[in-house]
Amino acid sequence: MPELPGFPRRAALRTLAGAALALPALAGPLGQYATAASPLWHPDPVKDGLKAFEGVEADRGGLHPDRKYVVVEGNHYRYNIWRDDRDTTGGGDRQRTETKGMVQNGAVLKMHDGETWTLSYEMYIPASLHGTSRFTHIFQTKTPATNAGPWVTLDLVRDGGVEMISARAYANPGSPSIAAAKLAPLRDKWITIEWTLTPGDAGAAACVIRSGAGAGAPIAAQGRRTGVKLPDQGDYVRPKWGIYRSVESDPADILDTYLLFRNYRADRE
What we know:
Strand order of the largest sheet: 1-4-15-8-9-10-11
Number of helices: 3
Order of helices and strands: HHHEEEEEEEEEEEEEEEE
Radius of gyration: 17 Å
CATH topology: Jelly Rolls
Helix content: under 10%
Strand content: 35-45%
Number of strands: 16
Shape: globular
Distance between the termini: 40 Å
Structural class: mainly beta
């Protein structure tokens, strides 16, 4: 697989070597993982590979069969996307490389109305992945049976010259922000995202964005919102990770790029 700009293989190996030294004890809203039994979802990329997810959504039109879209690299997952990728939805105005759902030991985990779930993961955003004037989701929640949503999202947005990362109640009127931070200081390093989600027609969502790896890293932004539209619609709410973006933004912001994820965790309170 060819290297993409901004993260050469040697740099990846150095990152992995540094990350292998220690895993900080989890604290805060996900602190039960430090003392309780293993969370419901805690995939190991080496052991579980893509079986950790319900599926991969990328190049669904089969335009680029030679490309590798989601791959395991050491202790993390790499999600690749190219500027000429096009999804089968939207009439050619968007592209996606995403994994969907949570699978542990062959069982699909499902978030239902009234339950409270905690999800966390570490993420590496390279300089080549830009905030955009149209949508760029790097996390979203949907209801599979109806394909409804996205409900709650994590977006890379651009407001003039300022790029932001923003957790949003996307299905609520105006898609209000739950927590937001400037993107520039969070690039080219591992950061941590922590969610607390309660599905429902008027559910709740909280997000903590940390500027480093692990639950002890400094907080760049945090917030909580109630009355959030996050319904299971008689089915379940399913999280998705990766890059799903409009190509109708400034072409300078639609580059060949990638996104890295590791240390996925999810539990039901």
